[in-house]
Amino acid sequence: MHKSVIAAQRIADVSLTKTELQRYSRHLIMPELTAEGQKRLKAACVLCIGTGGLGSPAAVYLAAAGVGKLGLVDFDRVDLTNLQRQILHGTKDVGRSKVQSARDRLLDINPEIEIRLHECRFSNENAEQIVADYDVVVDGSDNFGTRYLSNDVCVFKGKPNVYGSVFRFEGQTTVFAPGLGGPCYRCLFPEPPPPESVPNCAQAGVLGVLPGIIGMLQAIEAIKLIVGIGEPLIGRLLHFDALKVTFRELRLRRDPQCPVCGENRTIFAPIDYDQFCGPREQASVPGISVQELKWKMDAREKFELIDVREPFEFEIARIDGAKLIPLGEIPERADELHREQTFIVHCHSGRRSAQAVRLLKQRGFANVYNLEGGIDAWSDLIDPNVPKY
Ligand SMILES: [Zn+2]
Questions:
Q1: What pLDDT shows up at residue 199?
Q2: What is the distance, to the nearest Å, from the Cα of residue 248 to the centroid of all Cα atoms in its chain?
Q3: Residue 119 Cα, ligand 1 centroid: separation in angstroms?
Q4: For the segment 150-192, what is each residue's pLDDT rounded down to a tens digit?
Q5: CA of 159: how far to CAs of 131, 155, 198, 281, 293, in Å?
Q6: Which of 22, 228, 238, 341 could form a disulfide bond with 4, CB atoms 3.0-4.6 angstroms apart?
């Protein structure tokens, strides 16, 4: 059991009408919820960032469950290609504003609640002001810039951020809440992958039901935080593979050096996320392609493959034979390696490993190469059995 994110005095004047008692009766009869829990839901304000694949199921269930104030941020219009998964919107809504279509659907499900619309792009100019009014944020965004922005702003404002992401047949979810003892998104991913290495749903596709599963898990986590029941998904990442039908749980660590939630913070206000997540100059370090790595492996050439990602990423996906030395441990562990050997260094997309190559070169390693495109390119081009994340 944990504490509710809704302070006790907030529910002092909240009461449930006769209609509400009836509507929520299946909640009220559960000893874990009761009328007290339902009042917390009624007092709660939840912000859904995005009303797309993840935001649709999350908002539908949060509305049905009786979350008193539901905020929706989206600037987009409903497109026919959305309807395969974005169940908030119907065929009649094609061309309409997503937040307006969402509001109509949600109020039809539950007219007892209040829907607040933020019909705009969630940006570094408005994010802090929007998030300030809410107790919990459900991030259903589909791009890295918005994820970093919502993460940073939630850390600044001390709001739990229920994260979800989907890719083809796989999805993951966790609760970022440094205020409640867990890591934040930046603790896990200090830097975004280069934009050209990450296909979005429009390029890579997604099984329509998949965001349904992940978005509903996000709704469950939001409800648990509000009611104050169960074990929140803080410090744990749940990974779901629809083809294998497996749920895997990975432990997440907080990074004491995190620039947003660490001990010596350097970021106190939203930054320029377009620039942060945008294209960068290619790092000038010697590199090899995934095809070259495969040839070297097949030819049994002598080299050592070093993986500089974090242990939780290694758990999700790995290239056989790779030795794990997270980037942060390279300086102290470089002496474990023999300088005369050849090393190929990889990470998720090639950016962290380029940094590792630079660090190793500074320490006298002559034959170090960066695996261009990282394990991501490896699963795209060489071994599709290596899961993408
Ligand atoms: Zn952090």
A1: 63
A2: 16
A3: 29
A4: 999 999 999 999 999 999 999 999 999 999 999 999 999 988 8
A5: 8, 6, 28, 35, 44
A6: 228
Q: Does pTM top 0.85 for this prediction?
A: no
Distance 161 CA to ligand 1 centre (A): 12
Between the alpha carbon of residue 11 and those of residues 4, 20, 161, 241, 334, the distances in Å are 11, 15, 22, 39, 56
pLDDT of residue 275: 83
Contact 148, 273 (CB under 8 A): yes
Distance 188 CA to ligand 1 centre (A): 7
**263 CA distance to ligand 1 centroid (A)?**
10
Q: Packing angle between helix 55-65 and helix 210-227, nearest 10 degrees?
A: 40
Flag residues of the chain having pLDDT under 70: 1-2, 195-203, 280-284
What phi and psi values does residue 99 have, to the nearest 5 degrees?
A: -65, -35
Distance from residue 246's CA to the centre of ligand 1 (Å): 28
Ligand 1 geometric centre to CA of 328 (Å): 15
So what's the pLDDT on residue 389? 85
In the chain, pLDDT over 70 holds for what percent of residues? 96
Gap from CA of 229 to ligand 1 centroid (Å) = 25
User: Which residues belong to the active site?
Assistant: 201, 347
